[in-house]
Amino acid sequence: MPQPVCRGTRAGRARIARALAGCAAALVLMPAALAQEITVPHRVAAGAGVSIQTSGSGAATLYLVGPGTAIKRGIRLGTPAEVSGADLRNAGRYKVMVRAGGEAHTANFFVVPGAAQSISFLARPSRVPVAARDAISGVAFVFDNFQNLTTAPASVTFNLAIADGPSITRKTESHEGIAWTRLDSARKAGAAQFVASVPGVEVRRVVQQVASDPCELRFHIKPGKSGIEAETDPIRDCSGNAVPDGTIVTFTENDGRTRSTVDARIKRGVAQAQLPAAPGATITVASGVVAGNEVRVGGEP
Amino acid sequence: MKILSRVLLSLAACFGLGMAGVAAPSDSAPGASAPAIALDVSQAAPRQVEDSTVRAITRDYGRAWQALAAALGQNRADLLPEGFVGVARQKLSERIAEQQRSGLVTRVIDHGHRLQAVFYSPEGSAMELRDTARYEIQLVDGGSVVSTETVTASYAVLMTVTDDRWKVRVLQETE
Fewer beta carbons under 10 A from the terminal one: N or C of chain A? Predict the structure, then answer.
């Protein structure tokens, strides 16, 4: 008759050890009874739910980690585990792991971006001189409904228009979520509407087109209360747009010994300055890179 | 008794009770050192990338991944503004909030990035890059590592200038 295994003899302890080792082996093999497989689709559209199929039986823990998601919850093996679209909004790789009985199985799938539904639009600069070549740039970043960069090509239209002037339209395709264009500014000053659009969505920016550098900058002088008054003709750019008030115009008087400089701002289309009365002095005018005429005090302009 | 205790220890190990075979997370902050970044700008268009911008992108993208590793490893969304803005920051914050709810932590051990600039905006304020990143990622549940994986992943990255720094606006893994 075999000895009861609980007896504390040397032989009994050996039997206990063998029995426990056998139990351990059986327990190690036990997960085979719960053998699981995870089945997930390879690709899922952003915002669409997914059903994770598992095989086997019993309780398990499901982990789902991905961009914006880190879920842990209990599931029953053999029963589909549903993951809602709200948990799969963000494009990227998701890892599913099911752990049961000390055993873990993993699977990966990708959530792919949906169709273009929104645009992030960079329009530069916000203020630009008229009639400048390639002076305006527009860059559109194309996103789906869930702020995923839409990597599939999307048709993007750029339109630059100014009131009472012709508009410019450029159609292009986004590449890896980006579409861009470069446009000339119009010849007419004013607030231009710069629009980037994909079907059903448009984003608007305003580009202020301002007069360019003065064209044919001219001034005249007359005696003033305490010297000479210098005043320009109405200042316009070469397209006929009035150079904006506030633009600096510099008058310089040089009599050979002393030099006087006055920076005046354009006000109501003209710039004025008071200069010392220095007979024989030469007065010049300039604005930015543009130089105007020259007048000699006491001489002919 | 020795054999008995050994067997019990082995059984305990079989069930993952915190002994051999389970790497416990260390106390050191994951991703604390700057990852290696190699940036290729030869394909960038329409604007050529300036040398100073190459240096800035390399530095700031590395900082962003350091911030990402620290934020996911400590469940601290407040570390993200160091390198992320906009959508990228929002999505990483959501991930951290979910990790907190689920009692999870993600450890990222960064092995480096090969970056290729594919778009540099005409006015120089936005850049799109492709990143081939290599890292080890561990999912930690209640102090135990439940998953370790070495990953080579491709990302679409959009960086923009914010507060005189380049920050990641989009970080999206691609197939």
Answer: N
